[in-house]
């Protein structure tokens, strides 16, 4: 069994180093991007590739398999139930356009459950980390989810991921049903940043359909470390999920409304298991 605390310190160090080096040497060339052929709404920048190289090199000595947005699944030499999940640059569009939050995101999961997450916010040069049994922290300061229990007094962070079928009438109806109960709706363009807002109590709920695991893996760990709860369910696309996360008070209501999100129960449970 690996030393999770030691791996957390390694991930924190890598995230800070990679993110800071990018910010201290960012050029117009690093902000160049192309649209993906398979998913035209998705872009890939030079910065994504620069960050991934440094992050993967830093994680490789641990000998644990890695799932990364840019390179996919990278096996280790030995069989392991542990998995690093990396999004070198969450919020790429925000980063290249100067439009909003973006972050380096590194998580460690075991048996499809989060152990810890590390997020380095590039706008604020801010490090967040946490996980179940670890707690949750931003720059060393402990954070916690809010106690808000009424949707009419709560905010929800969401968005339209690249793989979300926005043209579907059913999808539009489900989306409206999802956000309608809440006082405020925010779309930040970064799942990592959205989940941090839930973890620190600034927002109460995060929900997106057809979001990739690397977008949310670290943030879900931090939300759970901050006293929140989360649920994911596969969509049928590889490493693509319907995801909700919230404070503990609102999570039962999310479960009750889960038919619209195709999500039920706590993290790791499918409708058949719940």
Q: Which secondary structure elements does this structure contain, and how are they paired or packed?
A:
Layout: H1 4-25, E1 33-35, E2 43-45, H2 46-59, E3 66-68, E4 72-74, E5 82-90, H3 92-97, E6 103-110, E7 113-121, E8 126-131, E9 135-138, E10 141-142, E11 155-157, H4 169-179, E12 184-186, H5 191-199, E13 205-212, H6 213-225, E14 229-234, E15 240-246, H7 251-256
Parallel strand pairs: 3-5, 11-12, 11-13
Antiparallel strand pairs: 1-2, 3-4, 5-6, 6-7, 7-8, 8-9, 9-10, 13-15, 14-15
Helix pairs in contact: 1-2, 5-6
Order of helices and strands: HEEHEEEHEEEEEEHEHEHEEH
Poorly predicted runs are: 257-274
Strand content: 25-35%
What would you call the shape?
globular
- CATH topology name of the largest domain: Fructose-1,6-Bisphosphatase, Chain A, domain 1
What structural class do helix, strand and pairing data support?
A: alpha+beta
> How much helix, percentage-wise, in residues?
25-40%
Mean pLDDT score: 88
Q: What count of structural domains? A: 2
What about the largest sheet?
8 strands, mixed
User: How many DSSP E strands?
Assistant: 15
The CATH architecture of the largest domain comes to 2-Layer Sandwich
